[in-house]
Amino acid sequence: MARPILDRFVVVLNEPQDVVNIAGTARAMLNMGLRRLRLVRPPEFDAYRITGIAHGSEALIEAAEFHESLEEALADAAHVVGTTARRRAPRYVWQHPRAAAPELVALAGVSEGPIALVFGREDKGLSNEQLDLCDRVLTVPVDPEYPSLNLAQAVLLITYEIAQAVPEGVALPRPRRYAPLAHPEELRRLFEDWDRALELIEFYKSRNPQSILRTLRAIVRRARLDAREAKLVRAIAIEIRKYLERRAG
Q1: 8 Å CB contact between 115 and 77
Q2: Which top CATH class is 4-165?
Q3: What pLDDT digit, counting tens, does each position of 75-95 carry?
Q4: What pTM did the predictor assign?
């Protein structure tokens, strides 16, 4: 489902060295609902190879913009977000992606220009001078003993947090046949039928029936069954009882 607010974000790759990483970035952007890509002086660009790796990315790659300098790529940006894996001595506005994402989404809703997400080249990232162009700097909280991320991985992680911060986010799948939560009366009948079934199969033996039923009720309530599920679980207990009654008869 398209979310217009994400159209206000643009991913900027500064001198990406490998077309595989450009393809991985395109795939990550498509996964997260972003469609605007800018490339600054890529030494190699093969649209056919990129779209072969990132299937379905033809429209995104065809619309990609090319720039001769990072300054040019950021000329119309309302807010610039740099990224780095290295801790720097200069004083920047540092944030983790999850903390920054809601603020960036809010800015995207009121800014005239795009919000630029800037990623450096694979071998050395963004320089201090390039980070000076940024309004804030994001770093992904990873194991400090191995802080470096693949370029496309970094794009995926940061754009994921932004996509999750959009209020009308992607909903979880729902069953085709929706049912409301089971009514307390439906659960009461379910517990009664299971009590009879457990008694018929001699499950209780020396156990305390009330303690067993109390645990069973807690399990079922914790599962938050809907009405259809409650009917199914109750029907199992009823069929157990009927089967045993037929055998006894």
Answers
A1: yes
A2: alpha beta
A3: 999 999 999 988 766 788 999
A4: 0.75
